[in-house]
Amino acid sequence: MTLFIKNMVCHRCVIAVSQELEKLNLKAVRINLGEVELKKSPTKKQISQLFERLNFLGFEILDDQKQKQIERVKGLLIKKAQSAEVEGHFSITDFLSKALHKDYSYISRLFSEVEGITIEQFFILQKIEKVKELIIYNEMNLSEISYQLGYSSVAHLSAQFKKVTGLTPSHFKKAGGRHRKSIDSV
Fold first, then answer.
1. Which residues contact 135 (CB under 8 A, 6 or more apart)?
2. Tens digit of pLDDT for each residue in 8-50?
3. In this structure, what DSSP letter does residue 183 have?
4. Which of 52, 134, 164, 185 is deepest in the core (most CB within 10 A)?
5. Which CATH homologous superfamily contains domain 67-185?
6. How many CB atoms lie within 10 A of CB 19?
7. Least confident of 50-64, 107-121, 141-155
């Protein structure tokens, strides 16, 4: 049985959900961002308790098919951005169509309708948060960061960074990263 969980956006979320499942003696086969595959179907009581516990932590078990699709899209894109392995020729269209086995125009329309932004805008926000993280860690220069996140040039990354944050990457770095959001608030 697969459960779809809204607001699971980072590794800490996976840990929190995993702990709640353990408390209810529910065995997970797999836990990904926004998705939990259970070994066997939970009882109604377990589902009710899990719903309450997850709600308390800011999560929500989804039962609407559209919302489930949106959470899968978000999970896939967050994971891709966080990997910092976005190829220069990366195509969101191909990536999501293959991963979800759905027509991209349907996915895109649904996402925009529910989230109020395009899939591309969401992915840009995720990449910019990863850029912020990499700048703060100071392990790569902007050229390496732009390559890792699939930007065509440092100028393109810098322009997009400034458009989203209002700061250049160097001003962000000088500010010490105080403008960084947690992944779950993006």
1. 142, 145, 169, 172, 173, 177
2. 878 888 999 999 999 999 999 999 888 899 998 888 899 889 9
3. G
4. 134
5. Homeodomain-like (1.10.10.60)
6. 11
7. 50-64
